[in-house]
Amino acid sequence: MSAGFIDLQVNGHDDVDVATADREGWTRLRGLLAAQGVTSWCPTLITAPFDVLDARIAAVSAFAVGKGPEVVGIHLEGPFLGDAHGAHLGVDTSPIDLEWISTLPSSVRIMTLGPEREGARPAIAALRDAGVLVAIGHTRASTAQTVDSIDDGARLFTHAFNASGPLHHRDPGALGVALADDRIALSLIADGVHVDPMVLQLAWRAKPAGKIVLITDAAAWRAGRLADSGVALVDGAPRLDNGVLAGSALTMDAAVRYCVDVVGIELLDALTAASATPADLLGLHDRGSITPGRRADLIAFRQGLEVAATWVNGELSFQTGQ
């Protein structure tokens, strides 16, 4: 038995894309999430023009209420990314629009941005003051820019090692700072494709307890979509036509199994990275652990850490054989 998983980065799953799903798609998506032990999650919207993002935020907010895994906030991965765009198309590199940030609804709980962007420091401060979890990512920020971003309140590195500048022994950059600074957590995609298992092990050794977060960054790989981009599943992960990774086909239970069985992480540590740590980062003090007084967000496992049943706030949401 474990506390329910909390996935901070879900672009979609299987054949359902968060950016374009209708109500029926959202119902199916909740079922897919419950089947992998997810009880709370953040629908993730990637870079798009402001008017498109505004419409998608409104749609997600409208569909967010329903039975099953609970939406605990929207994650905006962009539009103010750094210089490592990855699969994000049409990134506008003009200064961060603080006025647009000020209009974001309270449903936005995480924003990933690049510390090297002009206006990053006041943007981080404004988001922090609004109660938004600021993440750095898709970045080639300098060491100094990264330290500044953490001083200003950034507390998460989005899918660390992917879409980021390299680590260098004389110029640590964003990765080096994030590995060394205990104030910031790393989110990791543990699917055997995005990050080598030895690097995952190094990350776990570098960070103190409670500073590693497992995410899926899952996309609608079966539908061949990541928002406005077409993708195809190649060698276990969705990719653009040019081969660039575009999300994952990972599930949270598979991420935990991979960390335990392949990377050699202790089971309790892997489960914590999928539950208590993301809860703490979002200030969700009513979930994330099996503790008296907290929500009954629970997972029962079969042998081999396969999900047998999932309860959301005490209500059965998935059971093997349903």
Characterization of this structure:
- There is one protein chain.
- By secondary structure, this protein is of the alpha/beta class.
- It has a single domain, classed as TIM Barrel.
- Strands 2, 5, 6, 7, 8, 9, 10, 11 and 12 form a 9-stranded parallel β-sheet that branches. Strands 1-17-18-19 form a 4-stranded antiparallel β-sheet, with helices on one face.
- Strand 8, helix 4 and strand 9 form a beta-alpha-beta unit.
- Helix 5 packs across helix 6.
- The protein is globular and about 50 Å long.
- It starts with a strand and ends with a strand.
- 54% of the residues are buried.
Short descriptors:
19 strands; nine-stranded parallel sheet; single chain; about 325 residues; about 30% helix; TIM Barrel; globular; alpha/beta
Précis, in short:
By secondary structure, this protein is of the alpha/beta class. Helix content is 30%, strand content 23%.
How does the helix and strand content classify structurally? alpha/beta
Which architecture name does CATH use?
A: Alpha-Beta Barrel
Fill in the CATH topology: TIM Barrel
- List unreliable stretches of 5+ residues: none
Instruction: Name the quaternary structure.
Output: single chain
Number of strands: 19
Helix content: 25-40%
* Principal-axis shape: globular
Mean pLDDT across the residues is 95
The separation of the N and C termini measures: 19 Å
Helix tally equals: 10
- SSE order: EEEEHEHEEHEHEHEHEHEEEEEHHHEEE
Summed up, the domain count is 1
The Rg value, from CA coordinates, equals 18 Å
User: What profile does the largest beta sheet have?
Assistant: 9 strands, parallel
Can you say what the CATH homologous superfamily is?
Answer: Metal-dependent hydrolases
- What is the name of the CATH class? Alpha Beta
Strand content: 15-25%
